[in-house]
Predict the structure.
Amino acid sequence: MLCSTITKRLFSTSITRLETLAFIESSGAKISPASLSSVTAAKAIGKPITALIAGPHGAVIASDVAKVDGISKIILAKGDQYDHYLAEELSPLIKELLDTNTYTHFVIPASAVGKSVLPRVGALVDAQPISDIVKVESEDTFVRPIYAGNALSTVKSNDKLILTSVRASAFAPAPLSRDAPAPLEEYTASNASGNRTEFVSEDLVTSERPELGSAGKVVAGGRGLKNKETFEALIEPLATKLNAAVGASRAAVDSGFCDNSLQVGQTGKIVAPDLYIAIGISGAIQHLAGMKDSKTIVAINKDPEAPIFNVADIGLVADLTEVVPELTQKL
């Protein structure tokens, strides 16, 4: 007797949910503006966005993150080990999330944290990160600056998991305009990181002025100010009148005119304010890489051949010790 067996194979009709995981940094009890800009970049990828908040104080900003336009879900990892954003702790957490969920993209600000975390995550998941993107062409194609910002490179990734860091000045911050808050779930990593690095201390420069990286107006001084006393006497009052952040060239920082946290340029902060006033700054290519995307650039320098005038919208060839106090007084 011959028996035949018919095997019925069942196929799922559900659609796999492919998402972008976006890391959200906080500064104190506030979302960092750079993180809001990275959410805007993530929205351009065109997939649902899950926000990752890490640290014992993450719950403080979770209510604000839930209002960010474009975020569909929030994951909160509250462990004390994520305080101060040690990359050695964050990277295993991010890898575990990327491994156990259907994420196709990971987005993080190109901040000090992002520059430390992203390469480690790339090594753990065996994917090539695309750093410092300034434009999203499609879900696998991005634009990033090269050669100190003098050229733009369009990069296409063939990786199944795409890792990117976002230059904050290239994207507008995502608004906190969501009507229905995004749902939140707490997450605990299943394995210990084995990290042997520990946080020792930090020395932060506090100021009532706007934060340099996200300020709408910046007044920056350079070597032409000669010394710290002149820098403070000319730059500070003008910045106060304009309610602007204070910046500086590397030459001014190296000469001790101000703290290195104020440095603008290729090896400092990248800014793109509505107004950038460069006082006594010659315009070395490294400095221009950090501010040339500003909406309006005003340059004051006694040297008519200074390179800064090549990118300035308004240029004034004059003795800064005379014209800057006059400008401040008239404002």
About this structure: The chain is about 25% helix and 25% strand. The radius of gyration is 24 Å. Residues 19-186 form a domain with the Rossmann fold fold (CATH 3.40.50.620).
